[in-house]
## 1
Amino acid sequence: MTEKATMKSTLKALLYMAPMLSIIFTFNIYPIFRSFMMSFYAEYNFFQNTVGRYGLDNFQEILTDDQFWLAIRNTFIFVLGVVPTSIIISLGIALMLNKIKLLSSFFRSIYFLPFVTSTVAISIVWSWIYHGRYGLMNYFLSQFGVDPIAFITSPDYAMLSLVIMAVWRGLGFNIILFLVGLNNIDENYYAAAKIDGAREMNRFFHITVPLLGPTTFLVSVMGVINSFKVFDEVYALFQSRPGPARSALTVVYYIFQKFYEENQYGVAAAAGIVLFLIILVFTLIQMAFNKKFVHY
Amino acid sequence: MEEIKEKDQPIILKKRSLDKTVTISSEKNELILKSFAYIFLTIGALTMLIPFLWMVSTSLKTPAEAVAMPPVWWPNVLRFDNYVRAFEVAPFGRYFLNSVLITTVSTLGELVTTILAAFAFSKMNFYGKNILFTGLIATMMVPSELLIIPNYLTLSRFGLINTYSAMIVPYLASVFSVFMLKQNFESVPNELYYAAKVDGSSDFNFLWTIMVPLSKSAIVAVTILKIIGSWNAFMWPLIVTNDRLLRPLPVGLQAFTTEAGTHFELLMAASTIVVAPMIVIYLFLQRYIIMGVSKAGIKG
């Protein structure tokens, strides 16, 4: 590094950081503390911005609210539906992309395409594909003799529809991370194994699989964290409703409803804190794992 | 001598033939594996593309063609008129301009704030540097959904709800971008920095004339990721806008689902309008996007 820290250099650095820090403090750091405070607002007047009383009322309310538990349950089902499926498919695709040379980057571009496109627009396209009468999906299924399914309007299929779309959308991102992971595996391991006469299968299970472990873990945790925050997809796929009979009510959707539709700021903040704690657990697991197993 | 040679030869031959069969069978395996890979990858790629193709195809159909069963894969006459209709039925022109404005201003603003900050973190030494940086990184763990409620209240105190500022100001800086640029700035050799200083160049000058051009690809990557994020942002603009004319594209599109009713061809035309600009950017600059995403992922 350059010179030693002095009063002068500190002032200068602060000057350089001032625009960034003022934004981040106002909109990223202060709100974290404010949310914690708000979750304990038992009585709050929005118009006068006065707090009548602090207490655990909000937490009590969400923890006894069936809707909140439904949201937690749905979100876990969503995460369990999306993450493993996505990992398996994207790992498979990444391995294949790694195997072929010709057209590899062409395919990669296609798989990654949904990542750059608006979730809302894509969800609307999917709701058209899922359409009960005119949808492409039902036409496709009818070719195999399957009766039309009300993907969007039946509570039994809403979550499945959401999961399929989310897997489709998230593949590209995971594939990129897996490709980076595969790229980081030293070619010498394969060369050495080849000299020792290890066959393709053996090389795969004894080199690729263990060395891809950390990447797989990273991709899973990121997938879990991102899937916990699902909202746009639900809102757009089910025409600004949390799915038929609330079958796709997720935690963020619950927060949104409490905050935006019912103006219950304290309750929404409390639900936000619960979301934060759930995500924090996964983040900490990831950090602990990185410290222990990942050395690059 | 003769005897030895005769003894040797079959062994050599045998060894050679053995080698040959091994390579042939593994080459054959390789070929089969690769063919399977191509078949699967093609099916997968089609699955990825079908929603986009179906969107564009529907957007060019007549209302009758749109709901025809069996489906019309590609309309005989391309009805570009649907796009004109979409712009007439809802103010998509206005939505588009709103999106352009919000994306441009917040991206440029973020670039300035984060380049300055990343420079301070990478080339200056100051008290509390490590604590501050760690603290900033820690804020990335907090889901942005948690910040929505207090930010809404903050902006309403300033009277900024239902303004462009509400959609721009909170996004004028990003810890993620600072982190990405800092990594890159650090790779610019300190010797360059000293040399510039000796030549009497100010830090500010050095940053914009040497550091920034040298870190072009990282800056482009950060910029494009920001553009994509900003263009596609939905929940926050939805919350802070009541006025129809302030809506950016995704919010306008979502509202259009009720306005369009059963006119799927118009809905798909509108969706195409929202999606197309990012696809164009992606086609030209995907190298940077993928670079940015892989770096972002690895940081963990």
## 2
Amino acid sequence: MAIVAAAFGGARNEVGHPFRDVAIVGVFNTKQARVLEGYDSQSIALEAALGAIADAGLEPRDIDGVVGGIASNFLYQSRIGPAWRSMSPLGIPAVIEGAMAIACGLANTVLIATGEAGSYRQHASTAPWTRPTNEFVAAYGMFTAAEFALMARRHMHMYGTTPESMAHVAATIRNNGHVNPQAVYFGRGPFTADDVLNSRMVADPFHLLDCAMTSEGGTALVLTHADRAGDLAKTPVHLLGGGTDHYGPSYQHPPVWDLGGVRRPDLIAGHVGRRAAEEAFASAGLGPSDVDVCEFYDPFSFELIRQFEAYGFCAEGEGGDYVMSGVIEPGGRHPITTDGGTMSFSHGGASVQLFQRVIRGVQQLRGECVSSQVANAEVAMCTGGGAGALFTDVLLLGKDRP
Amino acid sequence: MSLLSPQVGDIPLPDPGPISAPYWQGCREGVLRFQRCLDCGAPTHTPALLCAACASMNLEWVDSSGRGEIYSWTRVWRPVTPAFVTPYVPIIVTMDEGWSILSNLVGCEDVAVAIGQLVEVEFHHSGGPDDIWLPYFHPKG
């Protein structure tokens, strides 16, 4: 987004919105499960790819751009080369890159697909994607829950944020999954905050039910030129704005809340995503009060509290009270993570879940969710990452062409 | 409650590289080292090629006092691998010289941890092919 902003920013009034010519026209989640028997990562990703293409009402031969290492396999198997290709694997930045390829004329129709199955079978250890090896963290027993817990604990110390407010977030998201027939943990609730607080401790202050699950699945999107989108099967969804904030490699350095940069000392790691959200809102001409659906990434319950502060929905330190004020539940002003997220819908491997907030945002704006559909949703805010990983990405989706 | 101790199982040990070798050599000698910029004086950790404050490549290795205070903590009950004995307590320590380090708290009960607790480094011989001595921290004062 920064590159697009630099290229278009000074002349935006003349050339229009950078993503004016882009639309998301196909989305698809395969079956998601704790274990997908009979699949490997390639086969589940290919199933997702074909699903998203069919959802758009397109044929494989319509694809002339692919994003992700697994999408490249689709490129070969379907013999649609030569085509534009990106290696970007991780969620919203990959979607933005696919949109940039269309906006810049490098491709007309871009497939983004990923999937994972069979890579986590020895559950004595935490999932491989939760424990990158590094000489300054691995010997201290670090994994994602501990990294995010160090951020949460600092916030509790500064602002008095409580485990009860975190548990309320987790219960809300898990209840969205409880009523979603497509969720891995469909029918496993309902949950109260007390259920979360009474589950076994993983990494203080996070109980088991404050944390994402591990599962398997595939997911895919198709983007095309907005001029063509109106002729396709589903209501096109547009990218109103996006941004990515990164501080460095995840899980290799102490996750310090106050970590700042020399260029913008006011933007600390505890607020990662703030700059991305500001850019996204500026591109869209919108603010937090315009967001109808908050498809926020939910690796751990505290992360939702932090994101509401980082994106300007509430003041710093007030995220705990904010999530307790009735806004995040179905029917609230800013309902969160409406399919059940990584806690209850799926965490399909290392990268699948980083796309699934975008998938759900598209489904909400189309009005096709089989559970927790937000009535007349016009704007969805989709996110990925989190403070414990030192990055957060933001994408604003809307029904109107920008 | 349980007394926190250095891990003695088959945990993943550091594989020092050319940039970090002086750090791990210091640990072998019982000294916690960090990098300081010869141009602007700012401290840097983890071992780097550039100063975190001014991007100078003019860094020197300096001995730390080994003392600091706990900046944040967590207490882990679900071990990352079965080699880790639980509970263990990952901490971020703000060192007296103004840099941050990730470690584990030892030498006290697991329930005694708190932000602001003063701590001091100690070294545990973990061995392995690189003869690693891991820095841990215990309460001090």
